[in-house]
Design brief:
This protein is mainly alpha-helical and 359 residues long. It contains 20 helices and seven strands.
Length: 359
């Protein structure tokens, strides 16, 4: 059998439309993905991901939506003989699953070839890394191989071909994260989370989630203030820590944590991790979204939360109008959180004083 890479399998391989011409009349309005649309798909949006002998990756038979699934269903019917039996079984199973999702009748070959598959990955025979021996070949106690998983997602797919391997990786991380450099912890944990999502396992909790999460910690600003206090004698660095919190909205938590880590290293504060300072990843990530994200205000005496602010803008409307005018009072009552957040600090303190009965 020829290498899989040399085969015409799906619509992307069919550059002269030899197969397309045969099936076009069955569904005249079918949309064919552009190259950019196909390249934007994630691995799990294909029925088959082939890891080749050279450790490269090929995605075949897109199943991202109704039309791509319809095409893959028909192409598979005409090309499955060109695949190794195991690969055909994996592709057929995932195409059949997608057909059920999009209410498409699977072809006879899809029905007959479909086998149970834990993922869409097929390891080409003769590969330098065998799927059945992934865990034994990856000695997770060797940091260089942990780095490889964090730096190369294809290596992560090798190491975690199914749910059992993801569990092993999580257990290893729980035990050994403290021995890794902080940037390696993040990359390794992020690879676990990405692979877990790809396999439909959801978010991994515990230590993994502390180093790779989609949510900001509500204590980020407090951690920034702690850093600023350690560089009092260096105004430029202190100013940087004081300002960086305002750009959180422009970055994902992962991007922000990596940015903060770079600033810490520039300031020489990374040597304080674990003693005076929380490392930037633990400082940035939260396991769950902060219900008060963007709405928490700390005055000199206490913390003001959204519900209290909303109620106060109605209860103290007339008093607020005396200080800020009726237009501002009306705006605060209409959109209390957004308008309050836009005010300068001295105006916020006046409002807190009104709420507390001090003004």
């Amino acid at each position: 059998m020829l290498k899989i890479a040399n085969q015409i399998l799906d619509v992307n391989d069919d550059i002269d439309y030899a197969i397309m011409k045969k099936i076009a009349g069955e569904y005249p309005g079918c949309n064919v993905m552009s190259a950019d649309e196909r390249n934007a798909l994630r691995n799990h949006q294909f029925a088959l991901t082939v890891i080749t002998k050279q450790a490269s990756k090929m995605n075949k038979y897109p199943i991202a939506d109704h039309d791509s699934t319809w095409l893959s269903n028909r192409y598979f019917d005409m090309t499955y003989q060109r695949l190794p039996e195991e690969a055909a079984g994996i592709a057929a199973y995932n195409i059949k699953t997608a057909c059920a999702k999009f209410k498409i009748e699977p072809t006879k070959s899809v029905k007959s070839m479909a086998k149970t598959a834990s993922s869409n990955i097929y390891f080409e025979k003769g590969n330098t890394l065998k799927s059945t021996n992934v865990v034994s070949m990856y000695d997770f106690s060797k940091l260089a191989q942990v780095d490889a998983i964090g730096d190369n997602y294809t290596q992560a797919q090798y190491a975690m071909p199914n749910a059992a391997h993801v569990k092993i990786a999580c257990e290893y991380f729980e035990k050994n994260a403290s021995k890794m450099p902080v940037e390696t912890r993040h990359k390794y944990a992020a690879a676990i989370q990405r692979r877990s999502h790809e396999l439909g396992l959801g978010v991994q909790k515990g230590a993994v989630n502390k180093y790779a999460s989609d949510h900001y910690s509500p204590m980020v600003d407090a951690h920034l203030r702690a850093r600023a206090s350690l560089v009092e004698a260096r105004p430029e660095m202190k100013s940087l820590y004081e300002k960086i919190g305002s750009v959180k909205k422009d970055y994902s938590p992962s991007q922000f944590a990596q940015l903060l880590h770079g600033i810490d290293k520039k300031a020489g504060l990374d040597r304080y991790y674990g003693s005076h300072l929380t490392n930037p990843f633990n400082a940035t990530f939260a396991s769950e979204p902060d219900p008060y994200a963007g709405f928490r205000y700390k005055s000199a005496s206490r913390e003001l939360l959204p519900d209290e602010l909303k109620n106060a803008m109605t209860a103290y409307h007339s008093k607020i109008a005396e200080h800020f005018g009726s237009t501002m009072a009306d705006e605060l009552r209409r959109e209390p959180v957004a308008i309050f957040d836009s005010l300068p600090r001295d105006a916020k303190e006046i409002i807190v004083g009104i709420i507390d009965g001090q003004l």
